[in-house]
Write a structure and sequence with these properties.
two-stranded antiparallel sheet; alpha+beta; 25% helix; 13% strand; Erythroid Transcription Factor GATA-1, Chain A
Length: 79
């Protein structure tokens, strides 16, 4: 199982283990489905995203919307 050494705001060292985002079981770093514990949990998580159960709610600003659009390249003159 993968263990992380974290430091809290007071500077105390804390250890934590990685848990599967779907079922909360401990996950080893050697898991082929990392950070999930199994392929099933990986698919369950994907289904939640596709169904809209999980979503990122943030207003898209006009500036960030423009940044996400593909930029047109200026045509190079033929030589």
């Amino acid at each position: 199982m993968l263990r992380l050494a974290l430091v809290d705001r007071a500077g105390r060292h804390m250890e934590t283990s990685i848990r599967c985002p779907s079922c909360k079981r401990p996950v080893g770093a050697e898991s082929p489905s990392f950070p999930f514990c199994s392929e099933r949990c990986r698919w369950v998580d994907l289904a939640h995203w596709l169904e809209g159960t999980y979503r990122i709610e943030a207003a898209l600003s006009e500036e960030s919307a423009e940044d996400s659009l593909p930029q047109e390249r200026a045509e190079e003159p033929d030589e």
